[in-house]
Amino acid sequence: MAATRLRPPEGLEFEAWLVARESALQRTAHLLTGDVHAAQDLVQTTLAKLYLRWDRIRLADNVDAYARKALVNEFRSAWRRPVRRAEQVVERVPDRPTPEAPAYDGSREAVWRFVSGLPPKQRAVIVLRFYEQLTETEIADLMGISVGTVKSQSSRALAALRARLPDHPEISGEEAGR
Fold first, then answer.
1. Residues 73 and 25 placed together within one structural domain of the fold
2. pTM to 2 decimals?
3. Which range marks the domain in which residue 170 is found?
4. Could you count the other beta carbons within 10 Å of the beta carbon of residue 158?
5. Distance between CA 146 and CA 117 in Å, rounded?
6. pLDDT single digits (tens) 99-158
């Protein structure tokens, strides 16, 4: 099936939407994937699919929500594919197990390093809930899962983050002033 080019008014409308929203999609994709290059690939694939259907998508009630859902669906499809990572050669095997992650250094970047280490489904729920500030119902609808699954994935992710970041006041439940 050959891709059809949009007629000029629709093409200009897509370009205007793209200029306004691409950076937000890039940020969300980066948080979902934990990798700049994977995020760029994810956004490009999503935008290509949106472009091909723009004549219908532009009529949607909320184009941004449609685009976010397309981005999350593409991310979900990617995490279900067999992983094709390069093998890593280990020169020296340590005598003792090494900690999974470095200690919390008090920075926001450290929190996102830990979030990027979560399993993809948990990471997606955390990003959508706390970064995109969606409700559990919106996340369930967006990801095609039940509200109960959103709650359980969020609970597991937060428990893992609490275990890794026991000193973080917002995650541990303690107030910063104590």
1. yes
2. 0.66
3. 104-178
4. 18
5. 23
6. 454 554 556 777 777 888 888 889 999 999 988 899 999 999 988 899 999 999 999 998
